[in-house]
Structure formats: structure tokens, C-alpha cells
Amino acid sequence: LVSRDNHPERSTVRVGGVPIGPGTVTLIAGPCAVETPEQTLQAARMAAAAGATLLRGGAYKPRTSPYAFQGLGEAGLRILADVRERTGLPVVTEVVDAGDVALVASYADMLQVGTRNAQNFALLQAVGAAGKPVMLKRGMNATIEEWLMAAEYIAQRGNLDVVLCERGIRTFETATRNTLDVSAVPLAQRLSHLPVIVDPSHSGGHRDLVLPLTRAAIAAGADGVIIDVHPRPDQALCDGPQALVDGDLDELARVMERFPPLL
Ligand code: PEP
């Protein structure tokens, strides 16, 4: 279903009216985690000023340590819905448990499946049946074939509104959090008709790498990028070191100006 063999035209997925697909580069930006209403609204305004047309933000955070901040849950979803109301930005947010899919889908415009759940087949089937577009991160240990098969689980439940997101893979390198596999962009686009975006924040794990990796993603043909921004990253409860701050956003805006949204 996701293969390009039977569907030679590349697809566009619409999220709350915003297209992700060939012809433009969609910027999705916002906080890694929803922490407070003020922090989320400020991050959303920073994102919009840089050219974002979709808001990201995690209410359910799959953390390596069980002692790390796990997200606000439904209270976070309510904050996201309120910020959507104030800014007009449709919301992309992660769901980590098949049992929460209906709840998250009742607030979100797009459901995100994260790298750690990229082969959680029960979750993939549940988001496939939820009636909302899905962003499927590549598993950090997944081959491109495994990533596309994960997308097939979603499509098999009747949902072809799937966007693939390359977010870095595990390699021997420790200078970055994960290694961004830029070649995955043209490869996945050649094999699948689904749009392919890149997460330069979670792959590199460092603020200084986000803009260079964004440029690399766009040069490789990515249909969008998803980027963490935070008004005060030194106080962030999740992944502060990779979040862009006000001072970085002018340059991001200059990169994005070349790709006006196709509304
Ligand atoms: C995220 O985007 O919030 C996230 C946790 O990303 P990943 O699943 O790629 O680590």
C-alpha cells in the first residue's frame, strides 16, 4: 500500500489543511514537551515566527529513564488544543500506548509514533484506525525496509495519510545523539509514495547541529522538517540542549522563506 510501485505519484498528506508533500518544505516546530500553558504558547509563537505551519509538542514523553519527566498526559493535550485555538497552528503530538489513541486523536490533528514505538504493531494498527494523519518516526535501529513495513501496518488499517520521519539511527558515533541518515530521504521517496520529513533536533541532539542538518535535509529533498524550540531551554524538562532559542530563529526563518507553504 505504501510502495511506489503501485502508486507512482508522490502523495501529499494534509494536516488540519496544511499540506506535507512534494512542492514545498513544511516546518513543524514547537517544544519537545508541553510543560506549561505559557511555555507552550511562547514556543508556538516562536515557531510561527520562523515559518512553522504546524505545532509539535509532546504530552506523553517516552523517556529512557523512568525517573525523567514523562509528560503531562491529558492536561498537556488540553494545553495544545488551547494553543491551537490562539495561534491557528494544527497540532502534532505523540501517542505511546494503543489504549490512549482515541483520547489523543480527540485533541490532535496528527498522531506521532516515536522511534521507540516504531515497531509496536498494536500501536501502529490502532493509529491506522484512528482517522487522523500519522507521522511515523523511523526506529533508531530500523532498516528502511522495516520502517516502510511499519508504515504498511498503518496503511493496512485504511489510513494512507502517513508521513515518514527520518530521525537518526544508532551508529558507533557518540558525538551526536544519533546519526542522521540523509540518504534515507531519497531512498524512502524512491521506494514509497509517502512524504518524507526529517527531525534534525532528535537526530543530532545539539542546538548547533539543527540548522546545518535542516539544510542537509532540504538539499536531500525532504518534504518537511520537525524542530524543537523552547523559550528557556536551560529550564526545559526535556531535551533542552537541542532546542532552538530566539536568537537561532531568524536564520531558520531565512531558510524557510524559500519554501512558501502551498495552502
Ligand atoms: C519527539 O519527537 O518528541 C521524540 C521523542 O522523538 P523520537 O521518537 O524521534 O526520539
Could you characterize the architecture of this molecule?
By secondary structure, the protein is an alpha/beta fold. The protein contains nine helices and ten strands. Helix 4 (121-128) crosses helix 5 (144-156). The longest helix has 14 residues, at 74-87. The radius of gyration is 16 Å and the shape is globular. The mean pLDDT is 97. It binds phosphoenolpyruvate. This is 3-deoxy-7-phosphoheptulonate synthase.
CA-based gyration radius: 16 Å
**Looking across the biggest beta sheet, what order are the strands in?**
3-4-5-6-7-8-9-10
How many strands? Answer: 10
Helical content (DSSP H or I, runs of 4+): 25-40%
The residue ranges in which pLDDT falls below 50 over 5 or more consecutive positions are: none
Rough outline: globular
**Main sheet characteristics:** 8 strands, parallel, barrel
Q: If you average the pLDDT, what whole number results?
A: 97
Features:
263 residues, binds phosphoenolpyruvate, 9 helices, 10 strands, eight-stranded parallel barrel, two-stranded antiparallel sheet, single chain, alpha/beta
